[in-house]
Amino acid sequence: MEIWFSVAVGVATACGVFLMLRAHTFTLVLGLTLLSYAVNLFLFASGGLTTDSAAILGDKAINSDPLPQALVLTAIVIGFAMTAFACIQAMRARSESGHDHVDGKEQRDISTKTETP
Predict the structure, then answer these.
(1) Residue 40 to residues 46, 58, 80, 100: CA-CA distances in angstroms?
(2) Which of 54, 63, 76, 92 is deepest in the core (most CB within 10 A)?
(3) C-alpha angle 48-52-53 in degrees, rounded to nearest 5
(4) What are the DSSP E strand ranges found in the chain?
(5) Strand, coil or helix: what is 102?
(6) What is the pLDDT of residues 72-107, one digit of tens each?
(7) Nearest Cα to Cα of residue 5 among 31, 50, 47, 42
């Protein structure tokens, strides 16, 4: 189970970094969100992946650590707020500049060497 979980975290991280390297604000926000999900999964896995065990001390001999669960819960709330803030900033930047390129430059058409709106 740990192998599949680590592969899923790795794929989510790779996809998040790939999307963050794109030149549009929407894909940047999606990449940041996907990367934050990957970090949340990594934090959750650091508490120990066990099945049929309690999150707190109880009758079971093997217990999972509740601290990473609390950290992930807090990170989900903060990540949602930051995603909403980044979306609002992206919408405002698009309305002011007229395009959604991250670098603030309009895309040039290579064949005619003119700027396209």
Answers:
(1) 10, 25, 12, 28
(2) 63
(3) 55
(4) 108-109, 114-115
(5) coil
(6) 899 999 999 999 998 998 888 888 888 788 776 665
(7) 42
